[in-house]
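Before the break, one more example. Copy the sequence into your notebook; we will annotate it together after we see the structure.
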Amino acid sequence: MRRTALLAAVFLAVTPWQAVAQVPASELARSVDIPFEAFTLDNGLRVVVHTDRKAPVVAIHAWYNVGSKDEPRGQTGYAHLFEHIGLFNPTENVPGGLMEPLRAMGATDWNGTTWFDRTNFFQTVPTSAVEQALYMESDRMGHLLGALSQERLDNQRGVVQNEKRQGDNQPYGLVYYTALETLFPEGHPYRHSTIGSMADLDAASLEDLRQWHRDNYGPNNAVLVLAGDIDAPTARTLVNRYFGHIPRGAQNQPAQADIPTLDARVDKLLHDRVPNTQLSRTWIVPGLLSEEAASLDIAASIFGGLASSRLDNALVRGEETATSVTAGYQPFQRLGMFDLDVNVKPGGDADAVSARLDQLLADYIANGPTQAEVERAVTRRIAGVLQALEPTGGFTGKAVTLAEGELYADDPGFYRRQLAAYGAVTPASVTAAMQRWLTRPTLAIRVDPGERETYVEAADT
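Here is what the structure looks like once it is written out:
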């Protein structure tokens, strides 16, 4: 990493905003460097290695090119269910499961996650434990099915269904389902939630899950990242030793997905056991690989993603008609979601706040942000990236960045293009992106306090 990035990282630890704000965003973007070497095994496993000797630990991340968007009708929730099986189930050669050995070796940040586009498993281990951890990770990839029994499937099915119940019963917990089902047409890969449906989870048989693994979790559908106190020659030797024997699986081609547009604005009224009305506006927009991704992200940040955002200044601090506001851009592999949320002050006039929200948004889209707003938002975003890249592993570290780049863009160095895009954002590019995508019909959801409407899975929640 060049001197600018090192200085920025030091400044962030002491006075994040004041120090980084003195460095031009484009220079900050160019300063970020994660050196890596990449190679591919004969069985198709893609491996990325980043050497970082600052601590005697290595982050091990296994990312699979399968998520909920790849689930066919009748198998919703399978990717997430199998993540639980992979995380908590014993393997053929580690009959007690991976959790206790990871604890014993002093592993940190060990977990697994599933989202629309991917499933991953990860842990950070002491350098002395790398070989044992790779052995266990390879057993999870190549030797899991022999240890998967009906009882273990039923246990994890119950855990996942309980997780779904907990999420559904959170305040505003059903809004996301309504959004997906309204914004995406029938059969669209992103139309169903990652958690899946109770009916599909109930119907999942042992053979269904075994076939799901055979179809999607072979080495040729995976990216393995090692980041930390390890070099590429050592990594190549160990990865070949423990992963090289695993045969190729079926080749999963991630589901293609277009960016749907509503024919006209859709207004939905829901009720929930909540203390105040919540208003939202949502659009489907381009995703992670789009040249407009950075401009859309900065647009959201300026409008409602900062403590000093336009929405916050207008509705929370100024007019005091809302208790909180947010705006966010969530990019996925094939598309993204642009979302605004306003929590109306209890007892307030929700109709008036809704009209005011639309007015503020229309003005913002028509006139765009100022140069100062863009500079502030871009610098904060890049500063956040610098902070997130400080660890080698976990949920946000260098290993995550390299894995995402390889999995979604076939390029571990994709972060460079992303940061360069942020450094090039201008008021004109933000305005153009908003006028192209946010002038399309929106989904407007309003949730008022009251009893929930009949919910198809209410009996299960």
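The domain at 37-243 is CATH 3.30.830.10 (Cytochrome Bc1 Complex; Chain A, domain 1). The two ends are 50 Å apart (CA to CA). Try to locate both features in your own notes.
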